[in-house]
Amino acid sequence: MPFLLALSLILLGLLVFWLGRRTQAEAGLPVGRVIYSDTRGWQSVEKPLFSRTYRLTGKPDYLVQQGRNIIPVEMKSAQAPGDGPRRSHLLQLAAYCLLIEEAYRQRPKYGIVKYADRMFAVDYTDALRMELLDVVTAMRDDLARGAAPRSHDEAARCLHCGYRHACSERLA
User: Fold this and answer.
1) For residue 122, what is the enclosing H or E element?
2) What share of the chain has pLDDT > 70, as a percent?
3) Geometric angle at alpha carbon 121, from 67 and 62, rounded to 5°
4) What is the pLDDT of residues 59-106, one digit of tens each?
5) Predicted local confidence at residue 15, as pLDDT
6) Closest CA to 170 of 135, 75, 154, 109
7) Contact between 91 and 131 (Cβ < 8 Å)
8) What is the largest CA-CA distance in the chain?
9) Rounded to an integer, what distance in angstroms lies between the CA atom of residue 83 and that of residue 156?
10) Who contacts 35 (Cβ-Cβ below 8 Å, separation ≥6)?
């Protein structure tokens, strides 16, 4: 009898492990332990990552740990563009890599942008890191000069913007 109980518990544990891994794979996450989630679906929402060095903050959708490596995963509900990830999504992913560098004291090798229909593994190269830092510098320079005009003509984007209340160019 104790043998059957132990065997049943082992089988139940394997089933739970398999179901969890299948759910993680269906979500588009790589194999590994989810150490951060901002999707509200799995656990309470994590606090943002913050870099004092770059005065940058962000909340990746997931951070997955594979051994000593940490992989940021950004989920997008839209279909993937035909020519690869959008530049803004690449820079967003690069920002998460930069935040991981400071928060976890290690540099990610890559990150993942997961669209509704495709997933892209994006190498975190020195060139991508420099492009991000150049864009952040340019944005800060524009803000300091008061030269940061609205960058779109979509009322729906304005409607959901956190700065709508203070924007003189809002569409909604």
Assistant:
1) strand 119-123
2) 80
3) 60
4) 999 999 998 899 999 999 899 999 999 999 999 999 999 999 999 999
5) 46
6) 154
7) yes
8) 77
9) 25
10) 63, 64, 65, 70
Closest-CA residue to 92 (of 120, 53, 64): 120
Task: Say how many C-beta atoms besides its own lie within 10 A of residue 101's C-beta.
Answer: 18
Q: Against a cut of 0.85, is the pTM above it?
A: no
Residue 119 DSSP one-character state: E
Instruction: Tally the residues of the chain.
Output: 172
pLDDT at 143: 82
Q: Give yes or no for a contact between 107 and 97, defined as CB atoms under 8 angstroms apart.
A: yes
Q: Give the per-residue pLDDT at 40.
A: 57
SS (HEC) of 34-92: EEEECCCCCCCCCCCEEECCCCEEECCCEEEEECCEEEEEEECCCCCCCCCCCHHHHHH
136-145, long-range: CB < 8 A, 24+ apart: 136/54, 136/56
Backbone angles phi, psi at 115, to 5 degrees: -90, 175
Lowest mean pLDDT among 35-49, 69-83, 127-141, 145-159: 35-49
pLDDT of residue 111 exceeding 80, the answer is: yes
